[in-house]
Design brief:
The chain is mainly alpha-helical and about 375 residues long. Helices cover about 60% and strands about 5% of the residues.
Length: about 375
């Protein structure tokens, strides 16, 4: 759009100058009066300007929530676009609502936690787009009904593959590691090997599930919640995971993620060890009852000490290894490089996780012998 202005300077009297503004009077020719032409170009509103205008409309219609600060943790000011996270929250909300409009869906058709996250501006449009893609599969659509799987599948569409791979490979790699450590005593210590493998298989699922990066859809806690509860509620599920736009984690919160997952894995490890050692002792006692005793017969496994030791091992060694594997190696290194080559990404993840599982089995045998709950024959 262009606006042209014409200025006609004149040296005549004021009366003549006033007469020059008569709309019925012809303009002087260029030969008698110099004419200065000014051209002002006004470009059409940019796309970013339109987005800002659309965002203001959405904010004004959002029910007076005071912007997108995610609970009002950023003080002062006029809300809306005043701060960096407010800007990101507003942008996230606009993107998500645009994806909803494009797909012909409404907020009421989504799970409550996902709809609330969109309204609060906590997730970008790409996450909503991924939800619709996963929903096309009947099996994934069923899994998306569960909040834990929903948060993990939205963060990593290969999450389920990693669960099946970890549990399937765990049986073979852990048995191989046991044989590597025990060699000729492998069959003499078969009951102990069985206990180790049972404990590992039970725990494998939780080792993938708990440290996996997530798209946090948890609603804010109430005002009555304690300070410690609020702190751990705000921690990420993986200490090294990439924060979404509009979200940030402090160093203390990332350390809190290690502590929180470590406590959960301690419970998982202790419980799975109780099952494994109980089954092992039952097999040893059954073997003694049928009279198949020998000089190299295995002794009963100490249930309490073994279970507590395995819980500590899971909370420290397994926790740290899987946090680094999922948050650093996979999310920060492999996925940015191979996000358009899913087959190659899956193959490399398979190789890395197989090596990590084998390493974990070797470390457990050494740790168990070091603290004296297992003895080499």
């Amino acid at each position: 759009m262009a606006v042209s202005l014409c200025f006609i300077p004149s040296s005549s009297s004021s009366a003549t100058a006033a007469a020059s503004f008569n709309p019925h009077r012809l303009l002087p020719s260029l030969s008698t009066s110099p004419v200065v032409h000014l051209r002002l170009d006004v470009s059409a509103p940019s796309l970013s300007h339109r987005c800002r205008q659309f965002r203001r409309v959405l904010i004004s219609a959002g029910g007076g929530d005071g912007g997108f600060s995610g609970g009002g943790s950023h003080g002062g000011g006029d809300g809306g676009d005043s701060g960096g996270e407010d800007n990101a929250g507003g942008k996230n909300r606009v993107e998500a609502l645009m994806v909803l409009k494009k797909s012909g869906r409404g907020l009421e058709s989504l799970p409550q936690d996902l709809a609330a996250a969109i309204q609060d501006g906590r997730i970008p449009g790409a996450v909503v787009d991924k939800y619709f893609e996963l929903e096309k599969s009947g099996f994934f659509s069923w899994l998306l009904q569960f909040a834990g799987f929903r948060e993990r599948l939205l963060a990593d569409d290969l999450f389920l593959f990693k669960v099946f791979m970890e549990c399937g490979v765990g049986l073979f790699t852990k048995t191989a590691a046991e044989y590597q450590k025990r060699k000729e005593n492998f069959f003499n210590e078969l009951e102990v090997v069985f206990a180790d493998v049972v404990m590992a298989i039970i725990a494998d699922f939780m080792l993938v599930y708990l440290p996996a990066p997530t798209v946090s859809l948890r609603p804010p806690l109430g005002l009555s919640a304690g300070a410690i509860t609020k702190f751990f509620h705000g921690c990420p599920d993986n200490a090294f995971q990439i924060a979404l736009s509009g979200t940030s984690y402090s160093l203390l919160q990332r350390i809190g993620a290690v502590v929180r997952n470590g406590s959960k894995l301690f419970v998982v490890g202790t419980a799975s060890s109780l099952v494994g050692t109980s089954v092992t002792n039952a097999l040893i006692n059954a073997k003694k009852a049928v009279g198949s005793s020998s000089e190299g017969e295995a002794e009963n496994v100490p249930i309490v000490s073994t279970s507590l030791a395995y819980g500590v091992y899971m909370a420290v060694s397994s926790n740290l290894r899987y946090q680094v594997l999922a948050g650093v190696i996979e999310q920060r290194m492999l996925e940015p490089l191979l996000h358009q080559h899913k087959l190659m990404l899956s193959a490399i993840c398979f190789a890395v996780r197989t090596g990590n599982t084998f390493l974990g089995s070797l470390l457990w045998v050494d740790y168990a012998r070091l603290i004296g709950i297992q003895k080499a024959h």
